[in-house]
Amino acid sequence: MTARDEILAGVRRSLGVTGHEEPRRQAVADRLARPERGVVPARGQKTGAEAIATFRKYAGAVQTSVTIVSGPEQVPAETARWLSANNLPARLRMGADARLAAMPWDATTLDVSHGPSAGTDLNGVSHAFAGVTETGSLILLSGPDNPTTINFLPDNHIVVLDSADLVPALEDVWARLRAETRSDPLPRTVNMVTGPSRSGDIDRTIFLGAHGPRALHVIVIDPDMAV
Amino acid sequence: MTAAITSPAFRENAHQALEDKQLQAVLGTMRTGFSVKRAEAAAALPEFEALRDSARDIKNHTLAHLDLYLEQYEAKVTASGGHVHYARDAAEARRIVADICRDLGAKTVTKGKSMISEEIGLNDHLEREGFTPVETDLGEYIIQLRHETPSHIIAPAFHLSAAQVEQDFRRVHTQLPPERDLSEPVSLLNEARQMLRQHFLAADVGITGANFLIAETGTSVIVTNEGNGDLTQTLPKAHIVLASLEKLVPTLDDCAQMLRVLARSATGQDSSVYTTFSTGPRRAGDADGPGAYHVVLLDNGRTGMLGTSFQEMLRCIRCGACMNHCPVYQAVGGHAYGWTYPGPMGSVLTPSLIGVEKGGHLPNASTFCGRCESVCPVRIPLPKLMRHWREKEFERHLTPATTRSGLALWGFFARRPWLYRQATRLGAATLALAARGRGKFAALPFASGWTQGRDFPAPEGRTFQAMWAAEAGKRRRAGGKPGAKEQNP
């Protein structure tokens, strides 16, 4: 008997089932076909300006800085401003995201290179798939557009978020991935990022910048400039 | 064979811990640390109690259908290009991991934080097989340098001071200038970041644990604050996930429910910094990510808990809230428990996994104050389960002879109420007389185990039963039955 067969047989023996019971199979099939949303906190259930303000509040509470611009054409200048304000070199790593590529990086003095990070980049920029109002989190998908290494290796991570992609809760991210049929299979990596890296393992005190980025800056594109 | 076990020596371990001044200073910070932050996070979310119910129900549903969800999960992992390996016990799991590493020609293996890795004693095995395992969670890295085991399931180096860490870094990081300044704790963090970055980039295989496995999509989930788990699983050629069977949840939405109670219960954060959902290896066209994805599913005694009262323990999501709130853990720390899992959850889980013969002392290390159950995000009745172990220990004649004969003596009197009353009256009167109005004893014959650490309160002369009888007499004389007023509005 293989380990697999023995373990499954053991589970069934302990539960007193055969695995062929139709009501059990139906219960599992129903649950998978129609996922239950469960309890979704009211605090993220906001729209428009209120949603952006709430996102900003929870992102700020975990040391993420947030700036709002009115259009994608302003993202390079805001990126250059933030790097300069923090005394960081004017160099930037990014993937192949078409939305980022269409922005006027040439209008700045930024030295932009493309591809995944190899561990020597100080600054990286990504485009988020979504933002989560409830926790001030960013959702990033792996792939050629926004390589996962850019989320973790550079010291400073800049993330561009379209205000139209702000959703109340993580459940809404799943709904969108299912609607876009990107949930079967999911991308290799879905990152939910809530603030810059930190650790409490030394002296039971929280310090930022353990292994991932020391700083996280979000640029929200909001055509209404509502906030 | 699993990680080294010293649980049978719990009493001696606890004595040593109580004498350890450095440890006691650290444990003293617990009351103002995790538990206060958890209380604040729970209070700030009106839906928190409803989410605990939801989390409990999701786990109960999953465990009742575990065979079917395992089959679904495995099919989805396979469909996304990954491999599922089943391991009946620790030895089988270690062998599977070592074989994968060998097939890939691996030398360096980076590791994210995994309690399953601790449970199966993986690092020692990998070293014996010629691999170099490097722990990358800062706390795990520190205890690996010290050849220790974690003292807390979410804060492995909880028992150490910054000064101790500085000594270890100076001892091990000999390639750095000896005159460097490490007086600020943040400089220790920066040094670890610098040293571990080399390992991340050089590693051939990355091993992580899993906080959850999702049947709907064949996804494994890790929750970290440092980002070490992500670098561990993204950079090498292969990603190996170590997980026990009960980590399954049905859907992505179910996982979202669990995440809301996990971080709040563990550290008081609304959300951990990095919650990462991994499905299969890198895809064609991906710019990065591991080329291979393996999941090792460990049983190691868990199927035997299903269908028993200990099935409830399999809901555990390893947040650590029970130990953060436990007066016994706060007194002796995690190492005294003698195996991978300390605190109340360990007191229930350890006897289940290594046997009541070895782990039977642990369920006795409880004051039954009930705080662990009151903060458990999945509402595990930990005190009830510890009592179950005490009963089993007694049934199997594992309880020490002195305890058994003491209980037998008490039982003799308890079955003879008149004799019991006489004996307790005599005892109470004698002790009251001996105390001579001081109200307490600093020392008592046969009770040195108690009086060494604190005073023994002296009875005031009458037994509880005698006082109760006198009170009942007074009430009767005052007229009317209790509650009579309410019955006649």
Automatic annotation (TrEMBL), chain A:
UniProt cross-references to SUPFAM superfamilies, sorted A to Z: NagB/RpiA/CoA transferase-like
| LUD domain boundaries | 124-221
Instruction: List the InterPro entries hit by this protein, alphabetically.
Output: FTHF_cligase-like_sf (IPR024185), LUD_dom (IPR003741), NagB/RpiA_transferase-like (IPR037171)
Q: Which Pfam families match?
A: LUD_dom
**Would you tell me the protein name for this molecule?**
Lactate utilization protein C
Q: Which PANTHER family match?
A: LACTATE UTILIZATION PROTEIN C
TrEMBL record, chain B:
Domain 4Fe-4S ferredoxin-type: from-to ranges: 307-337
> NCBIfam families under this entry?
LutB/LldF family L-lactate oxidation iron-sulfur protein
Extract the coiled-coil ranges from the record. none
Checking InterPro entries in the record gives: 4Fe4S_Fe-S-bd, 4Fe4S_Fe_S_CS, FTHF_cligase-like_sf, Helical_ferredxn, LUD_dom, LutB/LldF, NagB/RpiA_transferase-like
Pfam families tied to this protein: Fer4_8 (PF13183), LUD_dom (PF02589)
* Keyword tRNA processing attached: no
Q: Where is this region: Disordered?
A: 470-489
What's the name of the protein? LutB/LldF family L-lactate oxidation iron-sulfur protein
* Alphabetic keyword roster: 4Fe-4S, Electron transport, Iron, Iron-sulfur, Metal-binding, Repeat, Transport
UniProt key word Zinc: no
